[in-house]
């Protein structure tokens, strides 16, 4: 069946902000869908609150709404746009849930909107625990024994039947939020209660624990003619009990016989048919008992997912694109395989390499969070690596993680890598209980003499995987033995074998007796002719010719498949690697724009990246894609192979910048702002000189390489001070300390500073307003992209702060001063490309906090708002064009406000404090835009997942300094009809000012106290500014209980003020919806 | 079988192609020198079934999946009682099996059957050579003394695969009754069973065991006969239908089979798979040709032209039927969507049909299992 002719316009729902469990993969799938459907002549209406996405570029869809993805807002958009159909299967759980709510509300029926891809009945069947189980029984498949519960009473009854340990799975949640494994009654009570709370329909499934079984996942596609194909099989390295998102996974499945695999394939097909997903992709998860092969269906997702993005990158089969085409009536046999061009999409990819995905966690950001990996996903990103073998891929994945590992083994500075201090008994618990570093403990176990069987007994990791890793540990001994004779001891044979096994130059350097680094190994290796070849990912194991240069390196092989266009010069864009807090989709957005610009300029654009979730690693984005770890070695190998005209390091965040110096020193032709300028901005002393020269003020500061020095600096500049180690990203370990005791405590916790890595101590500008500026320069002139005023005061990491573009409270004079000084600094630093500067305004004075001559996290947001693709322009400038040629011009006066607001992962880390500080903790962001600041802020709040109340009780408790300022704000809240409750001090201040307030006990004062109000959900909004100087446990409990009950909790005065403005707007009239294209039309 | 049985440690080995390519890798399995026609198979699972498939006689199989041997070898998944390939080429042979059903390591199994393996070579490069240059002969050896040139000379002068009638080498010597159905708990359920046990004579041109299992599982009473059994001898057994199996080599050489089938198709319902399908092509006056590198894998899309639906199929053939050569009485029922080649035939008047691919899977997807039920229906209709 060809394209349906009865549909003209389609509404596509995005997935909103990046959160744990939903990251760039839905930008990737959404962009594919938009492109594919527009190419077929459909009018695409898109809604996504996340401005950092490629999908919300004004060119991607016909009508782009950067608005909150809530049923109410989408209903308004449907009413305005009257689409023929809604496609909810490409925007993750957010889109699916929203579409189901619209269906339940009757909105779709009322406006005659057809749900395509998956019908509501199918979604309900797949997502509802009971319905799913019944469906599986009907087709003769087994599920784990389980019982549904809708209350604690029912949950306890279910427990009597299932027994402990058991798994608790809340219905309709993302990434297993709120679920877990209970080993005792207390845990059961806790997790079940939390699960009921988190589930959209207050449903939890109490399930028999099959922890330790092997886990598999199959990606399935079906079309309207009921043709079904399997795109990829994935086997989890970590057995059942660890969420797939937190598992190391391997494609294809490695330990299934054909018979076992085919039964799993049959089961997947039966599942997609029975659930009734008409068209598109789904994934089905299975567990098998390693003792007898008994197979159990765990769950299915009736939509594309993180796994399908991984499967697309692992095989070269673009699942989301094909899913979109199938949703509008095409069948698989009518669609082409893009890579071979001659064969149809109705086939099953086969791969002749091995793919390893490794998650990346951020526990260092949440020290009090439980770091045990369980059924609720906790990782924030992932790296994928392709190698000819599992061993090669695993080592590439480990070094691609950018967590200080250089592969499997030779991990400097890790305690459990000292074999002489290891004993089996102390290692075993680390094998039994999975944490982020279990892989290191597996190595430690081998070093301590444990056998594959012993490690398997403790970890349940399949012996096949363990045996592969053992080969690496064994070979490492050979490396060290060879290295005793120094680097020259490595002959071609040994070196080649090491490289075939995936060992990095750094690992080899570490094995050498002399003190050498990776560069010496590289030089020696090249001299011996040990260099990698690049092979293609082609969906068909070379059975057909491929036309898409999607490549990976391997040392296992001799034939190279790189095919450069002789008539073009090549330019490399280095990507951002795995998502982490502080570096994510924003940078991928910039890399994708750079690739587009390069193509437009007639270069062969070359992408190097290791993150499978992203648009940048779509083989369509660039002319050549190298799926490689972002290390000196791997990047230099690509540079050697393709001899680029330029290499761009400005767009991928800190990752490529960290490589810049090494690349340049070894001959890479970096383009754009020079490495020297980057260093001048990063080096404290150099930077101080630059700003002094320009007459720009900096907060007083100093450096300390020991405790005495630190105290002396603090005394000199005066408390409060901001302290942090040098060379960190995302404000890692950055804190504000208010007195000597605080500083002592900080140094107690962060001892690792020294002469080489000094501690940085800055005067902290209390209650200052922070301002972020993005600008673009060509070395001769500078254009301001946007000036953003932070809503939270200085001291909160810029990534965690909401901000407004244009500024909502700064004076004209200050804005002009910021413009001028930004330009001066950009010229002084000889910026060619982008620069981001953070300013602080305290009273009438302007201070510079830092300058980063690279793409910043806010570039996509600013680009969306001002209607100018800054990253694209910057790429053109780096390759020689001028600001005038790229058409950059300033738009400082905007006829509307856009507010960017952060989204936090606190609901995934139970009990963690939600207080914001200089260390970044947010995973994503949303944008709200409207003609008034208040309305824009309200939209951003709603988009970020906060339920803004329309009535009810507001709890207020502020520190003494804020008491005077809070009174008028609360008075306005009272005028809006809210009831105010407050603890003694704040209550008194309000009473004195004549604001009616109800006093409530603090936690230690008696009951019912404030926590009771929160637990009972009597309070709808919390304004709680902490006293700062001392961590108050009351405050902390209040905030973390609020998060788990989804009660918005505001922790700064300026955010309170903005929220109240937002509420005033929101209560007066419903939020209006406007497309990005309309906003841009107003600019001209 | 003892799972801890030791096998020869990896020793240097080489392979040589007719085009002059010589690669060095590591030898496993038997330490003997063999020459076979190089074919690549893109299945990611099922090496045990592939190596024991008699259709591979005379061929050396390269598996594109890099890790082979991961789940060992077991007593249930054999497609015959021995390994038929001349050799095995893989990226990395696994010397530690991990599967509850495994009874032996891959290398030990190869050793037991006297078949050499080589790993550590660029399998993708070899695959591309076959894809672009067509099938050619390959030699595997652990001879340390011969020069590369000598190895190339040896492979070039070895007997040609196409010249030999491999069917005669793999077929049963005597007729026998086959009564075992799907015994493994890891089999797909049969889709539709015969109402009564129709008597079937199955020609063994190198039949895969899972075909025989499938026939029995669908309720049929199966007698297997040698490839050279005359049609008259089959009729004497008074069967309800005839099955023509898969097998190695060039169908045009199998005149005896074509002659026998010419008689049988006019008397009885006949179902053919792979070589059996090609023989039926000849029976109706069609021609077969040697493909550049054939179809060997488990992901080939085939459209059933009667329903328009696509099935993913397991295939292993180097010859195909030329659709232009077929008379009007024969209808092409299935085609390959990758290259439009003929995948299935039906005679418009006679109760005869056949497919080029392997509905019995083993290894491969079960999408086409329905064809056995279709055979059962045909038998029922022609009672």
What does it look like?
- The complex is a heterodimer of chains A (1084) and B (383).
- Chain A has 37 helices and 38 strands.
- Chain B has 383 residues and is of the alpha/beta class.
- In chain B, 22% of the residues lie in helices and 30% in strands.
- Chain B is built from ten helices and 19 strands.
- A ten-stranded mixed beta sheet of chain B has the order 10-12-11-13-14-19-18-17-15-16, sandwiched between helices. A seven-stranded mixed barrel of chain B has the order 1-2-8-6-4-3-9.
- The termini of chain B are far apart.
- The relative contact order of chain B is 0.14.
- Chains A and B meet through strand 11, helix 9 and helix 16 of A and helix 3, strand 15 and strand 16 of B.
Structure keywords:
heterodimer; A: alpha/beta; seven-stranded antiparallel β-sheet; 19% strand; B: 19 strands
What's the story with the biggest beta sheet of chain A?
Answer: 7 strands, antiparallel
- Helices and strands of chain B, in order, run as EEEHEEEEHEHEHHEEHEHEHEHEEEEEH
Shape of chain B: globular
As residue ranges, the low-confidence spans of chain B are: 1-8
Largest interface: A-B, 57 and 58 residues
The whole-angstrom Rg of chain B is 20 Å
* Helical coverage of chain A, percent range: 25-40%
What is the alpha-carbon Rg of chain A in Å? Answer: 28 Å
Mean pLDDT over the residues of chain A: 93
Total helical elements of chain B: 10
Tell me the structural class of chain A.
Answer: alpha/beta
Number of strands of chain B: 19
Low-confidence stretches of chain A: none
Q: Give the averaged pLDDT of chain B, no decimals.
A: 94
- Helical proportion of chain B, percent range: 10-25%
